[in-house]
Amino acid sequence: MMRLTKFFLGAWTGLFLLLPMFGAAAEPAAPKAPALPRLPWHLADIWWHFESPTPRFESLDLEVTIDRDIPDTVNFYLAPCGLGELGGIKFYGGLQSNCNGWASRTNQTRVHLGHGGIFSRWGRGRLSVDQARGAADTHYEAAGYEGDFVSVRRPFAWTKGRYTWSLRACDVERINDQDYTWVSCFVTAHDSGLTRYIGSLRFEGKDLAFWDRHAAFVEVYSTAKIPQSEIPEVKVTFGYPRVNGQAPRLKSARAIHPGPGEPSGSPDCATAVASGSDVVVAVGPIFERDPKNRRYPLDLKMPATR
């Protein structure tokens, strides 16, 4: 028996030594990670649906709270105004960690500004910087690569904290027997109480009506400086929209996480929950979400009357 055992041990040892000559059996290849969608990524879209539009727009105030600093080494766009509409004209804006725009009204060389505020509008037909104005260091852009739009952007060193992104209907200008309303954008830092003017855009019409809904979003986008940005870990809290100083009566609210194949589809890395009258969006590592859970209602409460 001892001799037989030694024979088998010797045989197995010899076979083991010969394996490198023939090559060991290949291990199964690890599954490839799914390809990421093309930027920009809307990590979360928040929608408020109101009972009715607001006539004669005067102001829009949107609070946003950021729980940590976001470096300018990532492209992160938190938009308390993800989409609005005045007199049938859609607009959007917020804070960007890596803002950029034209060097000047006439020099279309792109410059990168770091942290900044932004306000943009779409239009019917080609828009120009003649429909925008701002401070000496406001930057502009008018183009058609994401629909015809004109935009103002201004450096603003935002950090963690609470801010109010605001619009104000200002002066009315009459051109060729048509009225236009200049709408100005401001950002107020609650810690310091200081307000930063971002710039103004001209809207067709007078006594503009604000529509019966509102949207906010958080986004990771692409720039020439950072073509493929990392996803920062952050918690963003959006306050309830106020139009003309009042909270419009709420009909419903919902969160949407666009998936691959959808416009601005994103890898799953964000969740949204209602917290009283606020919406808290938490952004973190990529996870696997059931596609059935990409759209869900938010049980929001009306804010207390001020």
User: Uncertain segments of ≥5 residues (pLDDT<50)?
Assistant: 1-24
The H/E string reads HEEEEEEEEEEEEEEEEEE
Strand content: over 45%
Rough outline? globular
Number of domains: 1
Number of helices: 1
Helix/strand-derived category reads mainly beta
Strand order of the largest sheet: 7-8-5-4-3-12-1-15-18
What does the average pLDDT come to?
90
Report the count of strand segments.
Answer: 18
Helix content: under 10%
- Cα-based radius of gyration, to the nearest Å: 26 Å
Main sheet record: 9 strands, antiparallel
Terminal CA distance reads: 94 Å
Keyword list:
306 residues; 7% helix; nine-stranded antiparallel β-sheet; globular; mainly beta; disordered N terminus
Explained architecture:
The protein has 306 residues and is mainly β. It has one domain. It contains one helix and 18 strands. It has one helix spanning 2-22; strands at 41-50, 59-66, 76-86, 89-102, 110-122, 132-133, 139-143, 149-155, 161-175, 178-189, 195-204, 213-220, 234-238, 242-243, 250-256, 270-275, 278-283, 295-297. β9 (161-175) and β10 form a beta hairpin. The longest helix is centred in the N-terminal third of the chain and has 21 residues, at 2-22. The protein is globular, with a radius of gyration of 26 Å. Mean pLDDT is 90; it is low at 1-24.
What is shown here, in short?
The chain is mainly β.
Detail the topology: elements first, then pairings.
Layout lengths: L1 H21 L18 E10 L8 E8 L9 E11 L2 E14 L7 E13 L9 E2 L5 E5 L5 E7 L5 E15 L2 E12 L5 E10 L8 E8 L13 E5 L3 E2 L6 E7 L13 E6 L2 E6 L11 E3 L9
Antiparallel strand pairs: 1-12, 1-15, 2-9, 2-13, 2-14, 3-4, 3-12, 4-5, 5-8, 6-11, 7-8, 9-10, 10-11, 13-17, 15-18, 16-17
